[in-house]
Each structure stands twice: as structure tokens, then as C-alpha cells.
Amino acid sequence: MPFAQLMKAEGVKFDLRKFSWIGSAAVETATLALRTDLPFKSVDDILKAKEPIMIGSGGGPSDSNTQFIVLLKNF
User: Quick check: helix, strand or coil at residue 60?
Assistant: First the structure.
């Protein structure tokens, strides 16, 4: 849900800045994997890319994998 407000998703009717965090039900780790035949060997190489890097996800807008990709793109 935090990403819905951050990404200005349609239909968001709450302000998460007014909520208090009480804990997490799970801990997740996000990873980014690229094909080995691409010219990127480090994060610095990715940041210096001259062309956009195409990244896909099998999930929808509320899927954490999709949110990770959108955050990478926008921030």
C-alpha cells in the first residue's frame, strides 16, 4: 500500500503519513537480475547506461516485484 500513494495510483484515498507503523508480517528481499550477455557488470554500469534498460514483471500494479521496477525507473 505505501507504493500506491507514492506512485500516485488512481483511487488512493488515504495519506500514509498519518498512520503509525506497528510491525511487519514478513520480510522481503528484492533482487535485480540482468542477462549476462548485456554490457552491465556492476550497478555503476547500469547507472551510466546511455539507453533505457527494458525490465519486465509478471505481476500487476500491486505486486511487490512490479513496484520495485517502477521505483527503479522513477527514482
Answer: coil
The contacts found for 44-50 with CB under 8 angstroms, 24 or more apart, are none
**pTM (2 d.p.):** 0.48
Q: Does residue 64 carry a pLDDT above 80?
A: no
CA-derived radius of gyration, the chain: 15
Which whole-number Å values give the CA distances from 48 to 19, 37, 39, 51, in the listed order? 37, 17, 11, 9
Mention every residue, 6+ apart, whose C-beta is less than 8 A from residue 10: none
Higher-pLDDT residue of 72 and 22 is 22
For CA atoms 20, 74, 45, 32, the dihedral sign is positive
Query: Residue 37: pLDDT above 90?
Result: yes
Report the alpha-carbon distance of residue 37 to residue 26 in Å, rounded. Answer: 34
Hey, how many other C-beta atoms are within 10 angstroms of the C-beta on 6?
A: 15
